[in-house]
Structures are given as structure tokens and as C-alpha cells.
Amino acid sequence: MRYPWILFDADDTLFDFKRSARHALSVTFADFKLPPEEAYFQAYEAINHEVWLAFERQEITAVELRKIRFERFLDAIGEFRDPIEMNRHYLHLLSQTKYLLDGAEALVAALRSKKHRMGLITNGLREVQRPRIAQAKMAEYFDVIVVSDEIGVSKPHDGFFDHAFEQMGHPDKSQVVVVGDSLNSDIQGGNNYGVATCWFNPKGGINMTAHKPSFEISKLEELHRIV
Known about the structure:
This protein is of the alpha/beta class. The protein has helices at residues 17-31, 38-56, 62-77, 83-95, 104-113, 126-135, 148-151, 158-168, 183-193, and strands at 5-9, 117-122, 144-147, 176-180, 196-200, 215-217. The longest helix is centred in the N-terminal third of the chain and has 19 residues, at 38-56.
């Protein structure tokens, strides 16, 4: 095998985060008496994306992230609710979801049967990611699971990968490939750390960044020909 170790991003690589988040947000809006308007969903999603980018740049902490995104969302739509309580409610609902992308479980099961070792590496919040991984019954496939909120550093920073490699027993970097949908966290992080990278790009997006993946796939099953 070319890569004995495969490090998978979680959300939008194996887990269907968009579906999970929409479900949790829909219930949250209903419970906090907000109308399920598409404009509201889009406003939250745009704000959440910008807040997560700031977190990945280490401009805000995970504690600040938990407050800021709903605070900014409520300001944007001109409504008053408790942003901390709204965030807590949303995260609980999100933690109970277990939606996977098509082919995700079949892929990791097949790779495990071929004796690949695998890690799940995610820039997520501990109270969300651990229950979701358990709900989806995916933990059994991974030798290592690294959640940024638990270690205090996120992808793409080297400290995140230092922690992952310590948990992995320090394999040679030539034996490892990072697979993920984010050019800014997964691909940049892997590139900077000196390991191969595979960009999961199901929508055929154009890479407008300086981060160049070693490989690119549009379907999860295409990973078999790489590893």
C-alpha cells in the first residue's frame, strides 16, 4: 500500500455536516420562536463560516466562538435572544445527529479490512464531535481521533498535527495522507507538515488558493486508487 496511514477530516468529508447543521438549526429556530426563513439560514451559515475561519487563524478562542456566532446572527436579523443559551441548545441538537455522506462508512470499512490505519482529525467542539462520532458508530474504525477543542490547537497549525502524530506513534511522514474538503485547514495543514494531501472536492470547485493538494477526488470511493 502507498499510504499505511490515512487521516480523515470529519465534517463534509465523512460526516454530512450541512444536513446535520440544517436539522439542528431548524429545531433551534422553532424552539426560540424564529421563523424558518431561508434568509435566516443563509445569514447564520455565512456568519458561522467567518467565525470558524477566525478560530482557525487563532484570532478567537473556542469559548468566544460559542458566543460570537449567534450574537452576530441575532444582530444581523434584528432579533433579541440569549446567544449563549441559543448556542448551547443548537450544539446539543447537533451532537445528536449521525448523518454520514454517501459511501463514507463503506469506504472506511473497506480500508480497515485492507489493514490501513486511520485517524479522524476535526476542528470541532468536544461536546458535539464526540457524541456524533458515537451516534454514527464510526469510532471503531479509527486508531486515533483528534478534536481541536480538546487539545487547544486547530488545523492547519503544526501543533495539531504534532499531537496527532504523537498519538499515532510517530510514523514516517511519507506513510501518511490527509484527506479533507477544506483547502485552508486540511490541505494547507498537511502541506505545511510535510505529508501528502488529498482534496475531497465533490462539487468540482476551483482552487483559488495557494494550497496545492497532492491528489484530488470528487467521490469518496476514488480514494482507493490513491492509497
